[in-house]
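The data layer described in this paper is built around a simple, fixed record for each protein. We quote a single record here, exactly as it is kept in our systems:
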Amino acid sequence: MTINRQDNFSTIEDIEIGKAFLEQGYIIRPIKNIKDLDWIRNLFIKLVRKNLTIKDEVNDGNLFDLIHYEINPSQLNNFRLSIIKEMNATDGFRYRYYQVAKSYLEALVGNELAMQSRVNLSIQLPNDASSLLATHADTWSGDSPFEVVVWLPLVDCYKTKAMYLLPPDKNLNLNKNFKQMSGNNSEYLFKSIESDIKWIDINYGEVMVFNQALPHGNRINQENETRWSMNCRFKGLFTPYNDKKIGEFFEPITIKPASVLGMSYQHPKL
């Protein structure tokens, strides 16, 4: 069903998604292409069992939540980097990652997209201080404000097992006073916004798309389960880039024939 008005030809669903994104700074929605998510999860099970010595009787159902019984913090980063390398090298992985959020990306960003070349992986063991991500906004370090992040969990994430985000209205206040933060560390910044942040509750089977220009991060995971989540940036192919360029950090994934023709067009010389 579409809205019959001159200034917006989007569907009602797309308008509602856009409104929620602008107001909250993120959306969380059920994954429509659940087969693609299951494919990704099965790939991870295979890679984890390949990289760690795990007994066959360990249940795949809670393998990710309880991985801290199989690996210690000193081994974690090498293990994580190995999984990142292998998952991104697997045929079909990036395509399926895009598919789990396709309809929401089209509603929020468009249908001619550039995708980050490598999908990232976060693994946060319980009470592990080595996996902290300090408060930051990606735009502070060279990302374009036209980018969004697709955040995909492999487990249910809640409380400190999840990430936090500063809502748009609170971020406006932070930006007004940002100069006062100069010279202070990231912990000082977190303490200054702690009462305003939103902890993200999201379950396996859902996907989040969020505005990476908003401050976000994580804290020590104080829950009894390990967090597994992936993140990848997407943007409109023809929207402005910043330090991270097409061909270096991004790759075009849904370029349309008319755009191919337009980019190769040469006007006849008189």
In short: The longest strand covers residues 227-236. The chain has one domain: 33-238+246-261.
